[in-house]
Predict the structure.
Amino acid sequence: MAIAVKIDFDDVYEIDPESEEMTSATFSTILTDGTITPLWIEIQPPSDLLPKVYNLAFGPHDKKGELDDSAELTHQNYSKVFSTILLHAKAYLTLYPDHYLGIDGSNNARAFLYYRQMLRNFAYLDEHFNMGALKYYVRITRFGKTHYENPFDFTDILPEVVKITKDSPKRVDHMYNYFIFNNKDKN
């Protein structure tokens, strides 16, 4: 898994937009075994819970031809992969300056990875984006007999967006799992 990712919009893979609306694009990445693998970027319509936030999903296609945003790939250059995805997001947000994009950390490991990447690259990302985080959904944290009596830990959800700043804590008690951003320059 990627640990020391450095975001750099000057070091990206070639992006092939699949639609004029920029809601889908592809690029090819190189895995550690040398395999060249296409990745898709999709910008999906907002949910009812966050009506102004379009979901940014990325990953390979599965056997059914659908985007698999939970696939585990070992890239040769994680920095280039994430820089490519975020550069496409920036281009999309330039085209639609009133939109926000959200990235879902589908599990705790991915959510923490995304958060750490944002903090480690804060100075660079802050030049381009306004960034925030929240607990977007309730995770089931109780198991066994009490799982059915009281399955949700409602204290494990923060319904408001927390602005990410250079002083954001490196570790958080309530791990964020959804990250929202828009272009800083809306011109």
About this structure: Residues 78-95 form the longest helix (18 residues). The chain is about 20% helix and 25% strand. The first strand starts at residue 16 and ends at 17. Residues 16-183 form one domain.
